[in-house]
Amino acid sequence: MPASNLLNHLSRRQLIQLGLLSGAGLAGSALGINLLAQSRNRQNVIVPPFDIPQTKDAANPAAVLRDFDYGTVTQENGRTVREFRVEARTSALQLNQSTSFVTWNLNGRVPGPTFRATQGDRIRVIFYNKAGHSHSLHFHGVHSAEMDGVKPVKHNAVQIYEFDAEPFGVHLYHCHIEPISRHVGKGLYGMFIVDPPTPRPPADEIVLIMAGYDVNDDRKNELFAFNGLPDYYMKHPIPIQQDQLIRLYVLNLIEFDPVATFHLHANMFRVYRTGRTLEPSEETDVITMGTAERHILEFSFHHTGKFMFHPHQDYIAESGCMGAFEVIANSKA
């Protein structure tokens, strides 16, 4: 049934059962499938534990880092359907000791869930807006005009987006209600990964999304962050294993600043632009990214210790968009 017709057939009771009117079940229903899929993708991959207490705030970089939402999976007419349930909310985020910021977010987190599918899957996103303003979800990729997510979804309304997952690559989604820079800047964005039909080699897969915060509404960013909180990964370096293949899914969603780079210390990475290739296009240690540009970057560290990563626009890095990897030594046989 097309999404536009399906919505008309959902009663309030059915929406409650789906978890859309209570907030319950937004993530838990897919937990078992997510864990199974992640386990399958990490065979022979060593992922050191990241033993950092998870925050109850709207941003939780420890959770975002390696969390992929594969949806609730069903089979319809012989094909795989992945259903995602998303709720827009309004909540405060403590950016640092002196700065609190009111976010518009998805499922209570900034950035929103990292949706993941395989090329050819059918995607069904049930979006319920509880954030107090009109919002929408616009997905990058290929879909019909009616699924483009440019029409406002009013407060307390529900919209269903349905389309095929194509093409494979690293995509994104975000609110498309004007002023778009404000809606994105307040947290309504996330990553959407479409895997190729033939899986990429096993790797420790990590999501890093760069974003800015305009805390005084002057259309300039005063703070910046990876995965929601300024300086989080400097205070809590990301543990990775020595000689382990790392696959970074990197997205630049910094509004107001036209460009940002990503630089990795003491190493080089292979670049798969927009995730649209199975072979790298280049090898470098710094790449330039405009707003909404994204890539897959692959590397491994032979040396142990702590190694920084950051944009090479120093004012962006020094204002919170900076982190470090901590390379853990392999155990001796």
Automatic annotation (TrEMBL):
Its EC number is 1.7.2.1. Cu cation binds at H135, H140, H174, C175, H183. Its cofactor is Cu(+); Cu(2+). CDD domains: CuRO_1_2DMCO_NIR_like. The keyword Manganese does not apply. One of its GO terms (molecular function) is copper ion binding. Keywords: Copper, Metal-binding, Oxidoreductase, Repeat. Signal peptide: none annotated. It catalyses: nitric oxide + Fe(III)-[cytochrome c] + H2O = Fe(II)-[cytochrome c] + nitrite + 2 H(+). It holds the Pfam family Cu-oxidase_3. It comes from the Bacteria. It is an enzyme of class 1 (oxidoreductase). Residues 94-197, 219-328 form the Plastocyanin-like domain. Belongs to the multicopper oxidase family. Homotrimer. PANTHER family: FI03373P-RELATED, MULTI-COPPER OXIDASE. This is Copper-containing nitrite reductase. It comes from Leptolyngbya boryana CZ1.
